[in-house]
Amino acid sequence: MNEIWKPIEYDLRYQVSNWGRFRKKNPKNGYRYLKPFRKQNLFLIKVKDKDMNCARLVANAFIKTLSPTDRVYHKNKIEDDNFYRNLEVISLKELGKRTGYMSKSKRVVEVKNNEIVRDWGSARKASKDLFISYQTVMDYCNNKVKRPMYNLMWEDDYFDKIFEKFSWEKRR
User: Fold this and answer.
1) Would you give the DSSP letter of residue 65?
2) Which of 59, 67, 122, 129 has the fewest Cβ atoms surrounding its Cβ within 10 A?
3) pLDDT surpassing 90 at residue 109
4) Phi and psi (nearest 5°) for 2?
5) Is the pTM of this model over 0.70?
6) 3-class secondary structure, 64
7) How does residue 98 score in pLDDT terms, banded at 50, 70 and 90?
8) Are 138 and 132 in contact (CB under 8 A)?
9) C-alpha separations of 31 from 16, 22, 28, 34 in Å
10) 99-125 burial: b if 16+ Cβ within 10 Å, else e
11) Cα 8 from chain centroid?
12) CATH of domain 5-100
């Protein structure tokens, strides 16, 4: 299998392999293999009570020493495949070019009498059209303003509210 193990710089008792596996050296009984866990979109392992990014550890050991501004990109887009040849170290700007299309903008709607009057593709577009700040649009949509100038909602919340009302009337 040609698996190569290198120590993790943060703690030399921990080791990372070129296949993206992790282990900890125990003086009594050899090695204990560690299983990464998922937290949001990252795969992490616990090293000395600190959560560390698996992909960054593999890249740091087998590709190059990473700076804080470097990002690790999975070439095959499988987040738990940390084989060192699948990883590429790129800048934040390059990461944005490669993955920016996958970001999700939430649609914003203006509601009057439980009907949609206007809608926008994102909070930024709504803020430009309404001549208010982006943060104000976000606050309106998240119900953080007591008396807003516009009755703005996230489109998903609007349809959830309509569906809930419809299902409640149907149950009666």
Assistant:
1) P
2) 67
3) yes
4) 55, 50
5) no
6) coil
7) confident
8) no
9) 12, 10, 9, 9
10) eeeeeeeebbbbbeeeeeeeebebbeb
11) 24
12) 3.90.75.20
So what's the pLDDT on residue 103? 73
Output 9 or 52, whichever has higher pLDDT: 52
Does 169 have pLDDT greater than 60? no
CA distances from 8 to 47, 62, 73, 127 (A): 9, 11, 20, 47
In the numeric block, which tokens belong to residue 165? Answer: 């009302």
**In whole angstroms, what is the distance from residue 140 CA to residue 3 CA?**
54
The sign of the torsion formed by the CA atoms of 11, 48, 42, 122 equals: negative
Sequence ranges of the chain with CATH classification 3.90.75.20? 5-100
Q: Give me the phi and psi of 27, to 5 degrees please.
A: -65, -30
Length of the chain measured in residues: 172
